[in-house]
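> call design_seq(struct)
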């Protein structure tokens, strides 16, 4: 993306933040072992990614490593029934709670849970969103937790952005890659859960 295009994207994101009454941009380090830096995608890219996963009004979106909560705000604004963020870093989780509580012009319910992703009690979430939030070991532990808690079921999807550890997903017998494409400057994979 060229300098002027990048600037226009930042201006658009700032306008979206103002529209929703929040500030969700920026990059920050996390205090989480095996956690990657906390960064946000543009509102435009997040909306395109959620649409590529087939987001409907019946969906519950779960953002692992939710950062400031921008994905939750986008999912709720697009009409998801519920949007849940999981964030292991206590300070970042508190900021996400504050942003989602302040957000205007969104529907649905938004919640933020402060916990490691592998400890979250996966149940009826229909779209799990991963913007490459952690390393291979944590991703493998998350998939084991999802399977142990009975998350894999037809109709459930996992979206993996910048899929550094895609081989971990390929090794899960209950996941099938449905699509892989570029959205903005990011590689995006959509995986479907099937019976384990």
């Amino acid at each position: 993306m060229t300098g002027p295009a990048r600037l226009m994207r930042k201006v658009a994101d700032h306008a979206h933040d103002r529209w929703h009454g929040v500030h969700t941009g920026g990059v920050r380090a996390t205090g989480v072992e095996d956690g990657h830096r906390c960064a946000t995608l543009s509102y435009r890219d997040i909306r395109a990614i959620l649409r590529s996963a087939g987001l409907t009004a019946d969906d519950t979106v779960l953002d692992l490593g939710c950062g400031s909560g921008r994905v939750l705000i986008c999912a709720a604004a697009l009409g998801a029934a519920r949007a849940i963020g999981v964030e292991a870093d206590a300070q970042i989780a508190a900021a996400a709670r504050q942003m989602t509580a302040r957000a205007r012009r969104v529907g649905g319910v938004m919640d933020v849970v402060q916990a490691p992703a592998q400890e979250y009690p996966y149940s009826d979430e229909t779209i799990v969103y991963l913007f490459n939030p952690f390393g291979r070991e944590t991703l493998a532990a998350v998939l084991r937790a999802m399977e142990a808690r009975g998350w894999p079921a037809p109709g459930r999807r996992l979206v993996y952005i910048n899929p550094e550890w895609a081989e971990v997903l390929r090794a899960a017998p209950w996941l099938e890659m449905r699509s892989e494409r570029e959205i903005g400057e990011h590689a995006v994979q959509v995986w479907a859960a099937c019976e384990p």
